[in-house]
Write a structure and sequence with these properties.
The protein is an alpha/beta fold and 358 residues long. It is built from twelve helices and ten strands. α3 packs antiparallel against α11, α5 crosses α12 and α7 packs parallel to α12.
């Protein structure tokens, strides 16, 4: 039987309150499923960073994996040639998804800066960790690890003192005995830039012409191929970044190859140095995550990974060099500011082309 009793004022007020609460909940739900998903997505998106890397994936991924594990920030990696990536970034413009550019030489980073692709960074973590010598003047790129373009030789075929300067490699006595990278190598282009700055165009052109004759067909697309040819005795001498030797020896400890730092005589120009480095894109969609990654890369932990995993020279002065490498205080470095590698790149490439190097 249905009750005919009317609800009291208190009961009526309670139901009105419930209806108001339900209305509020419905409004909140509507917001949640309409406007807020975008906010949630943006929050999740902020926990990732997209890296364009001119470094081989196997050389940079362990460092990025360590950062991801430490911070929970997801790293998406695209690896390709450095020149191709700079061209891609230029073409993508404001639409680029990239947050950071990592390259294997300072000249490419300087080119990206000149194109207006990078944003200046003024972070105390960078200033405390990386000396000014290894940073762009406006802070738009930062060196991460040092490498030296140097002589590797077969110890059965050459004695250490037989070559003192990189210019000696143009001597006819080395005809058919030297392996070099091809004309597209950023390492060759950077090395020629340093030689050009120190010796001038004419002397550099003579060097390149002699190098071309002496190398003959021993021109390689990969530095690892040069080291392999040296270990097998196919050639006596080769020009590569120093770490290729140590990586090869890690897998082939008995290989008859060794490294020799060039141009250390009194008037020598010093060892040719370059750096791998990083810059944050001007249009980065995840700037906070990108800055956290840069902080990690220049930290003691990040720098030690470069030293331990890749046999490179950490740029943080308090992080020790691997004991197997020539220690920093044992040789002189060419004095050319790294930013000039970008400035000299085109003219160095013109000299390479004129010499007929392929």
């Amino acid at each position: 039987m249905k009750s005919s009793r009317q609800p009291s004022a208190c009961t009526s007020s309670h139901r009105v309150g419930r209806r108001a609460s339900l209305a509020l909940l419905n409004c909140f739900a509507a917001l949640l499923f309409s406007g807020l998903p975008g906010l949630i997505y943006e929050s999740a998106a902020a926990d990732k960073v997209i890296v364009y890397s001119g470094r081989a994936e196997k050389l940079i991924k362990p460092v990025l994996d360590a950062f991801q594990s430490k911070t929970g920030i997801q790293v998406e990696l695209l690896s390709s040639g450095t020149t191709e990536l700079v061209n891609r970034l230029q073409a993508e413009g404001d639409r680029t998804p990239a947050d950071l550019l990592i390259t294997n030489d300072a000249g490419s980073l300087e080119r990206a800066r000149e194109l207006g692709l990078l944003q200046p960074l003024h972070m105390k973590e960078i200033e405390q960790a990386i000396p000014p010598t290894f940073r762009a003047a406006d802070g738009s790129w930062i060196g991460l690890s040092g490498r030296f373009w140097t002589l590797v030789y077969n110890t059965h075929l050459v004695k250490p003192g037989e070559v003192r300067s990189v210019l000696d490699l143009a001597d006819p006595r080395w005809k058919g005995k030297i392996a070099i990278p091809n004309a597209g190598s950023e390492y060759l282009q950077a090395g020629v830039s340093v030689i050009k700055a120190a010796q001038g165009d004419e002397r550099t052109q003579q060097f390149l012409l002699g190098l071309k004759v002496n190398a003959g067909t021993f021109v390689y697309g990969k530095s690892s191929q040069i080291v392999d040819a040296l270990a097998k005795g196919e050639v006596a001498l080769g020009l590569v970044n120093h770490y290729y030797l140590y990586r090869y020896l890690a897998d082939h400890p008995g290989a008859p190859i060794a490294i020799h730092m060039l141009d250390q005589q009194d008037k020598g120009m010093g060892a040719i140095m370059n750096v791998a480095g990083v810059g944050i894109m001007k249009q980065s969609r995840h700037p906070d995550a990108a800055k956290r990654l840069v902080e990690f890369l220049v930290s003691r932990e990040g720098q030690k990974l470069f030293a331990d995993l890749n046999k490179e020279y950490p740029l943080h002065p308090e992080v020790p060099v691997d004991s197997a490498l020539p220690q920093r205080e044992s040789f002189r470095i060419a004095s050319l500011p790294l930013a000039r590698l970008g400035e000299l790149r085109e003219s160095a490439m013109a000299l390479i082309e004129q010499a007929g190097l392929r």
